[in-house]
Specification:
The protein is α+β, with helices and mostly antiparallel strands. It contains 37 helices and 24 strands. Helix 9 crosses helix 10, helix 25 runs antiparallel to helix 27 and helix 36 runs antiparallel to helix 37. InterPro entries: A/G_cyclase (IPR001054), Cyclic_nucleotide_synthase (IPR050401), HD/PDEase_dom (IPR003607), Nucleotide_cyclase (IPR029787), PDEase_catalytic_dom (IPR002073), PDEase_catalytic_dom_sf (IPR036971).
Length: 1273
C-alpha cells in the first residue's frame, strides 16, 4: 500500500477521536463568530484603516500558506506516483528474475537427475561386463580343473580322458557362466589318431553320449513351447559311430577327412559337449586347424578371448518370412536338416550362403536351449573363450593337453542388468582382433551396437552406431586389468590379452535423454510468472482502492482541520493534536502490554475455579485464555475443577437393551441409540439440564452446575419423566423400522442429590467428568431400579418435597442395598402424577417449535399412516392388534427394499424381449397331484454374475416402486399376518422374529469380511469377489426376497401341534401331502395360493419380469420352507449327504459346486433363523422357550399331545442344543460366508446351553407354577 501524506494523519485521528465533540463545538463556534463580527464592525467604524490593513495582511499570509500547502501536496502526490511506478517495475523485474531462476533451478535439477541416472545405469552395465571374466568364466575354468582331477584320479593318459557326469557338471557351469555352449578338445597326435578314431570314440567311453541324451530328455533342455525341432533321444546308430573320424571345416561346409587326407596333425577334436546336439554331430570336429585362438591358448597355457563371430544377416525376404511363425518352424526344420541329414542335396545351396543358413540354425537351437524358449539367432556377436587344460596341477611341471571352449552370446550378459524404468541405454562392443578361424565366410566387424531398454536388450547392428552428440558422456570398460581367471587353484589361469581385447562403451540415447527432460521447467516458470502477474494485478487493484479511500480520508481530514482551526487558535490546535497523538500511542503501548500479559499468564489463572469451569463449559472447551503449545511442568498446570455443593445427578439405562441388541444388526442398534439420545438432548437443552456423557446405553446428566439452580432436584425429576414419556413414544414408532420387541424396551432412571466435584480431565481428549459419592449413589439408584420407574434417594426426595412436589413421590415397599451404604429407603416418583402436568409437558413440547427431533416427526408420520390403514381380521374374526400392525409395516418396509432392488435392475435393463407381455397372465400353480415336496431340488440354479445388475441394485434408494404394487404388497403381508393362529409360540410375532434373524444373516452375507487392498482392486473385481464369496446369493435380489418371504410364511396357519398330531387331527392334509412335512407344505400352499390371487396381479408383475424368475422364486420358497422340518429323519439324511457333496467333493464343476453350496447356505439360514432364539441373548432364549413350553403344555392339557412336556423339557433342551443347535451353529461357521455372525451364534448357543444346564430345572418348575396360577379361577 502506498503511504498517505503526513498531514492527513493528525486530521484523521481527530476525525476518529473527536467526531462527537465537533458538533457541539460547531454550534458554539457559530454563536462566537456572530458576536465577534459585531465587535469587529464597531471597531472598524472607529478605526477602519488599521483593521483593513491587518485583515489584508492576514489574507495574504493565509493565501501564501495555502499555496505552499498545495505545492507540498502536489510534490508528495508526485512522489507517491513515482513510488507506485517504481514498485510496479520492481514487481515485474522480480517476476522476470524469479521466473528465470525457477527455470534454471528446475532445468539444472533435471540435468543433474539425468546425469546421476545415466552414471548409475552405466555403472551397472560396466560392472556386468567386468563380471564376465572376473567371476562368471571361473565356472568354466573349474570344469578344466575337474578334467585334470579326473585324468589323474583314474590314471588316464591324454587324450583318452572322458569326464563322468559331464552333462550334469557342464549344465551347472553353463548356468553360472552364462555361456550357451561348452565343449573340450583334447590334443590328438598323428600317433594317437588311429587309436582315437578306431577304438576310443566308438568304444565304451562313448557311453557319455547316451548319458547326455538321457539327461537332456530328463531335464527337458529342448522341451519348450513352439520348439521347431524334435531333440528327443534317438540312439546313435553304430554304423554312424564307426564312421566318426576327425574332421574339420572348410569354406564349402562340413567335410569328413578321408584316409588319404593330407592334413597333418596334431588335432583337437571336439569330444564332450553340452548341450549335445542331435545325433552327436559336431563331435570329433578338429578346431586346431581353423582357430588361431585355440592354438594360442594351447601354446601359451592361458585363457584366450576369441573375436566376434557373427553369421551373415538374412536377406530381406527371409526377415519377412520370420513374421509367419508357422513358416518359421518349417524353415528352421529345413535348415537344421541341412546340417544333420546326410541325404540333403548340397547342390541346392552353395558356399557362404549355405554355411550361414546351417550355422544360424545351430545357433538358434543353442540360444533356444539356453533361454528355454524358441529363439531366432539374429546375427548378434558370439565369442569363444579358450581355457587350457593340463595333465597335472603342478604349475612348474605341467603340459597342456587340451582346451575347454565356452561360447558366449554377448547380449545375454546385459539382459536384466537394468530395471524396467531405465530406458534407452546404448552399448558398443569393440574387439581388436581379426578372425580367429581364418575364414572369410563369417561376417566380421570390429564393433557391434546394442540398445538396452530396461531388462531387454535389442540388437542395433554391426559397427559403432551410437549418436555422436553423446561422445562426451561415454563410459568405458575392458578386460585389460584382469590378470588371472579363478579356477579353484592357487594362482588360477593367466589371461592372455595381446591376441584379442574386448572393449565396452556405454552411451545414452535420445530416448533416455527425453525421459529426464520434459516441459516441467517451462510449466513451473509459466506458473511463477502467472502468479506474479496476478499479484501485480491485485496490487494495482488494491492500490486503486487505497487511493480512493485515501482521498476520502483526506477530504474528511481537511474538513476536520478546517473546523478545528476555526474553533481554536493555532497554538491551542497544535497542542490538542499533539496530545491526541500521544494518547493514542499510550493506548497502543498499554494494549500491547496487556496482550503480552495475557499471553504469558493466560489470564485464566486469576479467575476463580468456578468461573474457569463455567468458561470451559459455556465456551466449548475454552478456558478463557490462549493455551501455550510449549510443554510445561504438569504440576504447575492449574486444573479446571470445582466443588458444586447443590446438584442432582441422573443415571438412565435402557432395560432389555442387551438382549434386544443381540438380535439386531449393528446399524439398527445405533439407529435406536441415536434417535433416543437426540431426543433426550433436546429435552435437556430446554430444561436447562447439563448432559455429561453417554456410556453404551446409559445416559448421564446433572443439574446445579455450571450455574446454580435452586430447584435442581425438581428440574431433574421433570426431565426424567419427560424422557420416559418420549422413550415410550419413540420405541413404539421405531418398531416399524427396527422390528419386533422394539416397542417393549423401557428405561430405568436413578436420581441422587448432593455435592459433586466437577472438572476437566486434560489429555489427548479432554473430557468433563463428575466425581464423588453423589455420582456413585445415583448409579446405584439406577442399577437397583425397576423398568419404567424413576427411583430417587432420600436426599432427592426431600428436595422434591421441599419444592412442593410431594404428590409425585411414593416410597418403595422394599429397601435397596447400596455398596458401602447398607440398606437404603428409596422412592419412586412420577412427575406427571399431578393433574395437568402431562398436558403441560406436551404443550411445552409443541411450543418448543420443533415438536421433537426430526426422527420423531418422521416416525410419528409413519405411525399415523399405520393407524389409517384398515385392519385385517384374524381367524375367528379378531382384528390385528396395534403391535401386529406395526410389525406388518416393518415387514413391508423390509420387503420393499428388495423390491426396489429388483426395480432398479429392470430399469437399467435395455432388453425387454423376454419380459412377460402385459396381455399374458403371470401365474404358476403346481400340476394336479403334485405336492411341494415333489418340487424340492437338490440344487437351486442362481443367475450368473452381472456387474451391471450388481451396480444397479446398489443404487436402489432412488428407485420408486409402483404405488399400486406397493399397496398390494402391504395387503398381502397383512393378510398373511391374519392367517397366523393365536398360538403362544407359532404365531405372527415369532414369524417376524424369524424374519428378523434371517435378514440379519443376509446382511452379514451382503457385507462379507473380504480383505481388499486399497488401490489394487477395481469395482468389477470387488463385486466379482463378493459374488464368489457368497456363492452368488447376494448378487440376486429376487433370491434375497424369496428367502425373507419364506421366513414370513413358514408357519402360516400352524395349529400349535407337531406334524404327527396334525396328521391325526387333519387326515385330509395327511393324505394330500403323503404324511410328509404336513404343516410346512400346508403353510407354503396357503401363502402361494394367496400370492397367485387375482388381486395381486400388479404386485406379481412388479416382482417377476419373466416366467423363469417366477419359477426360481417358487423353487427358493419350496426349498427354504420345507427345510424348516428338522424332525424328518429321511430329509435330514439327504441334507447331510448333500453337505458332504458340497463341502468335501471335488467331482462337480465350478458352477455346479457354487449353486449347490448356495442352496445349502440358503437352507441353513432359515434353519438357524427358525431356532435363532437359542443362539441369542439368554433373555431372548428364555422368552421364546417359555412360550413354546406354554404352547405344548396347553396342547397336552387339551389332549392334543400324548406326553406332559414338563417331564422331558429339561433334558430335551440339553439334547436339542447338543444334537441340533450347536452343530447347526458350527455349520454356519463352516459355510464361511457369515463373518462374525457365525461366531456370535455359536457363542450364544454354548452360553445358553450352559445356563440352561445350571438353571433349567428351576425354570421348568417356575413355568409350571405360572401355568398353575393361570388355571386358577
Amino acid at each position: 500500500m502506498i503511504p498517505s501524506p503526513p498531514e492527513s494523519a493528525p486530521a484523521a485521528e481527530l476525525t476518529n477521536l473527536r467526531a462527537g465533540e465537533d458538533v457541539v463545538h460547531n454550534d458554539d463556534a457559530s454563536v462566537g463568530v456572530c458576536v465577534s463580527e459585531i465587535d469587529s464592525s464597531a471597531h472598524d467604524r472607529s478605526g477602519s484603516g488599521i483593521t483593513s490593513s491587518h485583515r489584508s495582511d492576514s489574507q495574504d499570509e493565509e493565501s501564501a500558506r495555502k499555496k505552499e500547502q498545495e505545492q507540498l501536496a502536489k510534490e508528495e502526490t508526485n512522489q507517491i506516483n513515482r513510488l507506485r511506478w517504481l514498485v510496479f517495475k520492481v514487481l515485474l523485474l522480480a517476476a522476470l528474475v524469479i521466473s528465470i531462476i525457477v527455470f534454471m533451478i528446475s532445468r539444472n535439477a533435471q540435468q543433474d537427475t539425468y546425469h546421476k541416472s545415466y552414471d548409475g545405469a552405466a555403472q551397472h552395465v560396466t560392472d556386468a561386463f567386468q563380471d564376465i571374466m572376473v567371476s562368471k568364466m571361473g565356472a568354466v575354468s573349474s570344469m578344466g580343473v575337474a578334467l585334470i582331477a579326473h585324468g589323474r584320479d583314474h590314471y588316464r593318459d591324454w587324450p583318452f580322458v572322458t569326464l563322468s557326469s559331464f552333462q550334469q557338471r557342464a549344465s551347472t557351469a553353463l548356468v553360472q557362466s552364462g555361456a550357451i555352449y561348452l565343449h573340450f578338445n583334447p590334443l590328438v597326435t598323428n600317433e594317437t589318431r588311429h587309436e582315437w578314431e578306431q577304438e576310443y570314440v566308438v568304444g565304451p567311453e562313448a557311453v557319455w553320449i547316451d548319458e547326455a541324451i538321457a539327461y537332456q530328455d530328463h531335464v527337458g533342455i529342448f522341451e519348450f513351447d513352439n520348439h521347431s525341432h524334435d531333440y528327443h533321444s534317438q540312439p546313435v546308430p553304430v554304423q554312424e559311430m564307426d564312421e566318426w573320424k576327425i574332421w574339420d571345416r572348410t569354406n564349402q561346409g562340413l567335410k569328413e577327412d578321408e584316409e588319404d587326407d593330407t592334413t597333418d596333425g596334431p588335432y583337437m577334436p571336439t569330444w564332450q559337449t553340452s548341450p549335445l546336439l542331435h545325433g552327436g554331430r559336431l563331435v570329433n570336429e578338429n578346431i586346431l586347424q581353423n582357430s588361431v585362438a585355440a592354438q594360442l591358448s594351447f601354446d601359451s597355457a592361458s585363457v584366450v578371448m576369441g573375436s566376434f563371430w557373427m553369421s551373415r544377416q538374412r536377406a530381406a525376404e527371409d526377415e519377412t518370412e520370420l513374421d509367419d511363425h508357422a513358416h518359421l518352424r518349417r524353415k528352421r526344420r529345413s535348415l537344421v536338416g541341412t546340417l544333420f541329414d546326410e541325404d540333403y542335396d548340397h547342390g541346392t545351396a552353395q558356399g557362404d550362403d549355405m554355411y550361414s543358413l546351417q550355422e544360424n540354425a545351430v545357433l538358434s537351437e543353442l540360444l533356444s536351449a539356453s533361454n528355454q524358449q524358441d529363439t531366432v539367432y539374429q546375427g548378434t556377436p558370439i565369442s569363444q573363450v579358450y581355457f587350457p587344460i593340463f595333465d597335472s596341477f603342478d604349475e612348474e611341471n605341467r603340459t597342456t593337453v587340451a582346451v575347454m571352449v565356452a561360447w558366449i552370446h554377448w547380449s545375454d550378459y546385459f539382459r536384466g542388468v537394468l530395471p524396467d524404468n531405465v530406458q534407452g541405454i546404448q552399448i558398443v562392443l569393440r574387439n581388436t582382433c581379426a578372425d580367429d578361424h581364418g575364414h572369410t565366410r563369417h561376417h566380421h566387424s570390429t564393433a557391434y551396437t546394442f540398445d538396452i531398454y530396461g531388462e531387454h536388450v535389442t540388437p542395433v547392428g554391426p559397427g559403432d552406431q551410437h549418436n555422436k552428440k553423446y561422445d562426451q558422456m561415454v563410459r568405458k570398460a575392458s578386460f585389460e586389468s584382469i590378470q588371472n581367471i579363478a579356477d579353484g587353484t592357487k594362482n588360477g589361469l593367466p589371461f592372455h590379452k595381446e591376441h584379442c581385447t574386448i572393449h565396452l562403451e556405454v552411451y545414452p540415447t535420445d530416448v533416455f535423454y527425453q525421459s529426464y527432460h520434459n516441459s516441467t521447467p517451462i510449466v513451473l516458470t509459466l506458473a511463477v510468472a502467472v502468479v506474479f502477474l496476478v499479484a501485480v494485478a491485485m496490487f494495482l487493484v488494491y492500490d486503486r482502492l487505497v487511493e480512493r479511500r485515501q482521498k476520502l480520508v483526506m477530504n474528511r481530514a481537511a474538513q476536520t482541520t478546517a473546523i478545528v482551526s476555526s474553533l481554536f487558535p493555532e497554538n491551542v490546535r497544535d497542542r490538542i493534536m499533539s496530545q491526541q497523538a500521544a494518547g493514542r500511542k499510550a493506548d497502543k503501548r498499554g494494549s500491547s502490554h496487556e496482550r503480552g500479559s495475557t499471553v504469558r499468564n493466560s489470564g485464566s489463572n486469576f479467575l476463580a475455579p468456578s468461573r474457569r469451569l463455567k468458561g470451559y463449559l459455556i465456551g466449548n472447551g475454552e478456558t478463557g485464555g490462549e493455551q501455550d503449545d510449549q510443554q510445561v511442568d504438569p504440576f504447575d498446570d492449574t486444573p479446571i475443577a470445582d466443588l458444586f455443593p447443590h446438584c442432582t445427578v441422573l443415571f438412565a439405562d435402557i432395560s432389555g437393551f442387551t438382549a434386544w441388541s443381540s438380535t439386531r444388526d449393528p446399524a439398527q442398534v445405533f439407529i435406536l441409540l441415536q434417535t433416543l439420545y437426540e431426543a433426550f438432548d433436546k429435552i435437556a437443552n430446554r430444561r436447562k439440564v447439563f448432559k455429561v456423557e453417554t456410556i453404551g446405553d446409559s445416559y448421564v446428566a446433572v443439574t446445579g452446575l455450571p450455574e446454580p439452580q435452586s430447584t435442581h432436584a425438581v428440574i431433574m425429576a421433570r426431565f426424567a419423566g419427560e424422557c420416559m414419556t418420549k422413550m415410550h413414544q419413540l420405541v413404539a414408532l421405531l418398531e416399524t423400522r427396527l422390528g419386533p420387541d422394539t416397542g417393549e424396551l423401557s428405561m430405568r432412571f436413578g436420581l441422587h442429590s448432593g455435592p459433586v466435584t466437577a472438572g476437566v480431565l486434560k489429555g489427548e481428549r479432554a473430557r468433563f467428568q463428575l466425581f464423588g459419592d453423589t455420582v456413585n449413589t445415583a448409579a446405584r439408584m439406577e442399577s437397583t431400579g425397576i423398568r419404567n420407574k424413576i427411583q430417587v434417594s432420600q436426599s432427592t426426595y426431600d428436595l422434591i418435597v421441599e419444592g412442593g412436589k410431594a404428590a409425585w413421590a411414593k416410597p418403595r415397599p422394599d429397601k435397596v442395598e447400596a455398596k458401602g451404604k447398607g440398606m437404603l429407603q428409596t422412592y419412586f416418583i412420577n412427575p406427571s402424577a399431578k393433574r395437568g402436568s402431562t398436558t403441560e409437558s406436551t404443550a411445552s413440547d409443541e411450543q418448543s417449535g420443533s415438536g421433537g427431533d426430526a426422527s420423531s416427526r418422521m416416525l410419528q408420520a409413519s405411525s399415523s399412516a399405520i393407524v389409517a390403514k384398515p385392519m385385517h381380521a384374524k381367524p375367528g374374526g379378531k382384528a390385528l392388534s396395534m403391535k401386529e400392525s406395526r410389525l406388518v409395516d416393518w415387514i413391508v418396509d423390509l420387503l420393499h427394499e428388495h423390491v426396489k432392488k429388483l426395480a432398479a435392475i429392470r430399469s437399467r435393463s435395455k432388453s425387454k424381449s423376454k419380459s412377460i407381455p402385459s396381455s399374458e397372465e403371470i401365474m404358476y400353480r403346481p400340476p394336479e397331484g403334485q405336492t411341494s415336496m415333489d418340487e424340492v431340488a437338490e440344487t437351486i440354479l442362481l443367475p450368473k454374475f452381472s456387474l451391471k445388475n450388481f451396480a444397479a441394485a446398489e443404487e436402489f434408494r432412488s428407485v420408486t416402486v409402483d404405488p399400486v404394487a406397493l399397496e398390494q404388497l402391504r395387503d398381502l403381508v397383512a393378510t398373511i399376518a391374519s392367517m397366523y393362529q393365536d398360538n403362544d409360540f407359532h404365531n405372527f410375532e415369532h414369524a417376524c422374529h424369524v424374519t428378523m434373524a434371517t435378514n440379519k444373516l443376509l446382511k452379514r452375507i451382503e457385507t462379507p469380511d473380504i480383505n481388499i487392498e486399497q488401490g489394487t482392486a477395481t469395482d468389477n473385481q470387488i463385486a466379482s469377489d463378493i459374488h464368489q464369496y457368497t456363492h452368488g446369493i447376494n448378487s440376486d435380489p429376487l433370491t434375497l426376497l424369496a428367502i425373507v418371504f419364506s421366513a414370513l410364511i413358514h408357519d402360516v396357519d400352524h395349529r400349535g401341534v407337531s406334524n404327527v398330531q396334525l396328521a391325526v387331527e387333519q387326515p385330509d392334509l395327511r393324505d394330500k401331502y403323503n404324511n410328509k412335512s404336513v404343516a410346512e407344505q400346508n403353510s407354503l400352499d396357503l401363502a402361494w395360493d394367496l400370492l397367485m390371487d387375482d388381486k395381486y396381479e400388479a404386485l406379481r408383475r412388479c416382482l417377476f419380469a419373466t416366467h423363469t424368475e417366477l419359477r426360481r422364486f417358487r423353487q427358493v420358497l419350496v426349498n427354504v420352507v420345507l427345510a424348516t422340518d428338522i424332525f424328518d429323519k429321511e430329509l435330514n439324511g439327504l441334507r447331510r449327504k448333500r453337505w458332504d457333496k458340497a463341502f468335501s467333493s471335488d467331482l462337480l464343476s465350478h458352477e455346479e459346486h457354487n449353486n449347490l453350496r448356495a442352496t445349502i447356505v440358503i437352507e441353513h439360514i432359515i434353519q438357524a433363523s427358525d431356532v435363532s432364539h437359542t443362539m441369542q441373548h439368554w433373555h431372548i432364549y428364555r422368552k421364546w422357550n417359555r412360550r413354546l413350553f406354554h404352547e405344548l403344555y396347553h396342547a397336552y392339557k387339551a389332549g392334543r399331545m400324548a406326553k406332559d412336556p414338563s417331564t422331558f423339557w429339561y433334558n430335551g433342551e440339553i439334547g436339542f442344543f447338543d444334537n441340533y443347535v450347536i452343530p447347526l451353529a458350527k455349520k454356519l461357521k463352516d459355510c464361511h460366508v457369515f463373518g462374525v455372525s457365525s461366531d456370535e451364534c455359536l457363542n450364544y448357543a454354548l452360553q445358553n446351553r450352559n445356563e440352561w444346564k445350571t438353571r433349567g430345572q428351576q425354570i421348568v418348575e417356575e413355568m409350571l407354577q405360572e401355568l398353575a396360577m393361570e388355571e386358577e379361577p
